[in-house]
Amino acid sequence: MAAISIQGLSKTFPGGYRALDDVCFDVGSGEMIALIGASGSGKSTLIRHIAGLVQADRSELCCVAIGGEPMQQDGRLTPRAKALRRHIGVIFQQFNLVSRLSVMTNVLVGMLGSIPAWRGTLGLFTRQEKLLAMQALARVGIEGKARARAGTLSGGQQQRAAIARALIQGARVLLADEPIASLDPSSARRVMETLASLNREDGMTVIVSLHQVEYARMYCPRTIALKAGEVVFDGASTDLTAARLREIYGDASEELILPGLTDAAPAPAGARAGAGAPAGQAAAAALAVPMRPARHTLEVAAGRT
Ligand SMILES: Nc1ncnc2c1ncn2[C@@H]1O[C@H](COP(=O)(O)OP(=O)(O)OP(=O)(O)O)[C@@H](O)[C@H]1O
């Protein structure tokens, strides 16, 4: 059964702008997919629909289902939407942490949907819950920052704290909306490695929207490309060469390619379904990415499924 199934999804904003146009695709459980597209192509809008944060245009053909259960249908959220959202972690470009609170507290916020409201309001978390938060922080490699104020962390560390919050929520699907757009290359790689490791080792289904196709080729076996709200490519990331991108986007393809990309397309190295080592190493070399095995084991999500 598909982890995510999207049929006939269109979105027209007030004023008549059609941001998504009859989008259809399925995402298998445990896939890691890149969402690529020039600015304004509809990536964020699509992610927000999958997360159940926005309602699609009314149409009998429209359905967004999570794990086989409709989240929205005919342009309306279903009664199951709230429960289904608990399985979906959403990570945004701007980390969405509360700067003045500790990293630990920010991560524990991920539990608010599963504990009594009064405890959440008073910030009363059990020892076990705090232990899970520490495990989640260890999983993303920043357990040493648990007591620091979130605002003092680097951008990449804040992004990893946001991933830890999604982990503690018990999410089995991770939607990351341009999670590396504000980061320097080294922090970007660490965040992508973290996402790939959760996908590879824990079977987390991941959709990550990206501005640069090299990261898609490096970490995601499959890429879906959008142009003006339409799916214009859905296939192996390695097939999305610079030439193919130019064919699809014309001059706008330049914003999707790091300078110096050649068409000797490397295979994705980081993720579950595409561990082609030699080609992956070529990609790593192209991006100056240090190839190293993931160090952590996921205790948190495993204990909460
Ligand atoms: N609330 C809204 N009201 C009206 N138009 C909107 C709204 N949200 C998005 N749009 C428009 O829909 C289109 C798609 O926007 P979206 O943010 O999904 O693109 P994107 O691919 O994520 O772009 P970027 O890479 O620049 O973040 C854009 O033209 C945008 O201006």
From TrEMBL:
Could you tell me which SUPFAM superfamilies the record lists for this protein?
A: P-loop containing nucleoside triphosphate hydrolases
Residue span, ABC transporter domain:
4-253
Enumerate the UniProt keywords alphabetically. Answer: ATP-binding, Cell membrane, Membrane, Nucleotide-binding, Translocase, Transport
Q: Name one GO molecular function term.
A: ATP binding
| Pfam families attached to this UniProt entry | ABC_tran (PF00005)
The entry's protein name is Phosphonate ABC transporter ATP-binding protein
